[in-house]
Amino acid sequence: MSLPSQMQAVRFIPQPGTEEASKAEPADIHVVSHDVPQPRSGEVLIKVEAAGINNADLLQRIGGYNVPEGATEIPGLEIAGTVAVTGDGVTNWSVGDRVCALLAGGGYAEYVAVDARQVIPVPDQLDLLEAAGIVETAATVWFNVFMTAAFQPGDRVLIHGGAGGIGTMAIQMVKAMGGYPIATAGSEAKVEYTQFLGAQGINYRTEDFAERIQEITDGHGVDIILDIVAGQYSEENMRALAQGGRWVVIGTQGGIKGPINFLRMMAKQAVLTGNLLRPRSAEEKGEILSGLVEHIWPHFVDGTIDPLIAQTFQLNETAKAYERFAESDRVGKIVLTM
Question: What residue ranges define each of the domains in the chain, with the CATH number in brackets?
């Protein structure tokens, strides 16, 4: 197929008078003309149909999430589209294949080049818009809950931010794999939404979630915590953990520091760890995605797990999409379309 030399892409450009983005002055969002990337050996070039928005993208805009070395400055960590070109040595993909991909960056554009190991097929039952909103969130949950925290059927899993993109995906994945999801949220409407998805919901603004968990689990506590908050709720998390519990921190919306009772951690023989997905190697991402395709993709096929796309915006509406993403009443995923 004939490819253009230029494409439309989003760039974060610091405001005049600032050298880089900051929390006080977030970088301006611009749609610019950009060279179409050329796939290197082992890569595929994907014509992007849609791209998912994630909190990491908003953090990159304010200078709070460094771009990995060698990655493009174009934001966007997950996309879906069709294979446009295959690089040397790529034998498992063909031009025209419907795919989604986990990226280190570059998703907010009409084309993206990515290591073929970070590309997986889109189930026939999903359209490309739906697929664009699942790969990063599903990979995050799979890596942290199922691989790092060694989930087992029957585990009680506490999911903070239960009505967001990662939270809604985590509830569904834990339930589909035989676990018991418990989710926190900041309003009664969001609590009801997490319960609609199959979780036991807790309003952390009006209840002590650690106490509620002891009631819900008959004093057992939770076996796994998927934590996007950390910081101010650290002590409550430790109280909520079961004996031998695993607490995985993947975000710091509640602050980068918090009190931890290490004696309680020792007594519970608890494990506290943290992860970032974006800097992982192509080999590691490929391993994570292989697990997704084997264990989670069948649940998308049979409808057990729903992509839960909340709203879509066109690429030139990225700023408006970010405003919506940050609003407190948002649930589910927001996706950009090309």
Answer: 6-134+278-337 (3.90.180.10), 137-274 (3.40.50.720)
